[in-house]
Amino acid sequence: MIDLGQHAAFILWAYLGVAIAVAALIAWTLFDAHQVSRKLAALEARKPRRSA
How far is the CA of 32 from the CAs of 27, 36, 40, in angstroms? Predict the structure, then answer.
């Protein structure tokens, strides 16, 4: 493994913090996309159909 020296704990905690932040952003994006899909489906179900 790479020798991180005396700052190893700081570096590892920084990487862990970034990983948690990225995971939270991914989860938030997926959750929001699901909500938007449901709202869009509800709006499409409400709109009147056009006859050709």
Answer: 9, 6, 12
User: Any alpha helices (H) in 1-52, and if so which ranges?
Assistant: 8-46
pTM check: above 0.90: no
Please answer whether residues 4 and 11 qualify as being in contact, where contact means their C-beta atoms are separated by less than 8 angstroms: yes
User: Token digits for 33?
Assistant: 């996309």
Taking 50 as the pLDDT cut, the residues of the chain under it are none
Residue 11 near residue 5 (C-beta atoms within 8 A): no
Element counts in the chain: helices (H) and strands (E): 1, 0
pLDDT for the residue numbered 32: 98
